Amino acid sequence: xxxxxxxxxxxxxxxxxxxxxxxxxxxxxxxxxxxxxxxxxxxxxxxxxxxxxxxxxxxxxxxxxxxxxxxxxxxxxxxxxxxxxxxxxxxxxxxxxxxxxxxxxxxxxxxxxxxxxxxxxxxxxxxxxxxxxxxxxxxxxxxxxxxxxxxxxxxxxxxxxxxxxxxxxxxxxxxxxxxxxxxx
Length: 184
Known about the structure:
Elements: H1 2-21, H2 27-40, E1 45-49, E2 55-57, H3 64-73, E3 79-82, E4 85-89, E5 93-97, H4 105-157, H5 165-183
Antiparallel strand pairs: 1-2, 1-5, 3-4, 4-5
Helix pairs in contact: 1-2, 1-4, 4-5
């Protein structure tokens, strides 16, 4: 009965994290929310965001030895247990849990599975945040071209002369060449 109650409480914490993670627009906020969630489990962790190279920890600064160990063990497998520590690796994130409850087997097994799920959710969320950021960068890159086309359309609409096909073609070619030069 006690284990069932604990499992429900833990799932509630995970659901809350998943819901909160949807509001994260950047990796830093996501890392901080992860730390909060692990803290609710009473766990001390180090979170490594692979692409950005950011490390997050309850202890503040992450030591060089911990960083090297996490980087070296990244390729060794998805979940690595050693002593009272567990390292969970995903494509975009790694989490080193420093104080897994190894002496309480049912809790240990439950947490191992639930925390693996949490890491997978974070991995997916990182992918979505990066995709969103890439879309924003693409919009910013295209904005001068879009502005130029709008200006050309406005110029043509307010022209007193009949449509000057040669001038419009020249202006469009100029915009296209400027955009293509940004592609390089």
